[in-house]
Amino acid sequence: MAVEKKPAEVNETPKKEKEVKKAPHVATNASRKQQHLDAEESIESVLNKTEGFLYENGKSLLIALAVVVLLIGGFMAYKYIYVANRSEKAADMMFVAEQQFARDSFELALNGDGNYAGFLEVIENYGSTPQGNIARHYAGICYLKLGDADNALAQLEEYKAVKGAPAEILNAQNLGLMGDIYANRGDFTKAAELYGKAVEASDNNLTAPIFLKKQGLAYSKLGKKEEALAAFQKIEDFYPASVEGRDIDKLIGAEQQK
């Protein structure tokens, strides 16, 4: 009797396992695709908002930009055209006054002669220019030479220090002249302070020893022996070849004897 062979059972479990394993993979791809779409929508939304903002506010932004450009352009025009033009006019106006000053005609240099302006008129019309600033320094000296210390001080105090090597001497002289006014008034404390600033303003062989000597003398008047000797000693150490340095040892000896 023949035995019937049963067909071999096919194990379908691996297929199911494979199907189960594929499911998460498909789900992940779908999720990533959705995230990508969401990101694109988000970027598009931002771009739309930006375009909307520019559309709605573009006019205001352009106006604001135009204002900034005009302000910058206006400042440059003011600085290089208007100010330069006024400076040139001030220099022309001051030319004769400077000549009068060089001749020691301080009254004419200060007030003019009816035909040509003096320093005071230059200050009144062009006081904001560099030339107007220098005119204040000139006017201060004129007032000093004419015996008017109060007006001299008022003009010298209005002078603004100028940058640059040549101007440093002028800055130092301005401070030194104010120191002289205070020294003549008997205010040696203020005078010594201003002389010290004059030295700092222009540390050179010409002006520095002059103001150091004046500072030392002011300290001596105040009875401040150490400060006076320190000022005199600086002349001997750093400016021995100057006019003040030639006989500074006498001042040092005299101060030491006090």
Lay out the secondary structure.
Blueprint: H1 13-102, H2 106-111, H3 119-126, H4 130-145, H5 149-158, H6 165-184, H7 188-201, H8 208-221, H9 225-238, H10 243-246, H11 248-256
Helix pairs in contact: 1-3, 1-4, 3-4, 4-5, 5-6, 6-7, 7-8, 8-9, 9-11
Counting DSSP E segments of at least 2 residues, the number of strands comes to: 0
Q: Which secondary-structure class do the elements indicate?
A: mainly alpha
Instruction: Give the SSE order as H and E letters.
Output: HHHHHHHHHHH
Specify the CATH homologous superfamily of the domain at 161-258.
Answer: Tetratricopeptide repeat domain
CATH level-1 class of the domain at 161-258: Mainly Alpha
In short:
About 80% of the residues lie in helices and about 0% in strands. The chain is built from eleven helices and no strands. The longest helix has about 90 residues, at about 15-100.
Note down, in words, how this protein is organized.
This protein is mainly alpha-helical and 258 residues long. The protein is 79% helix and 0% strand. It has a domain of 98 residues: Serine Threonine Protein Phosphatase 5, Tetratricopeptide repeat, CATH 1.25.40.10. Helix 8 runs antiparallel to helix 9. The longest helix has 90 residues. It is elongated, with a radius of gyration of 42 Å. The protein starts with 12 loop residues before the first helix and ends with a helix. The N terminus is likely disordered.
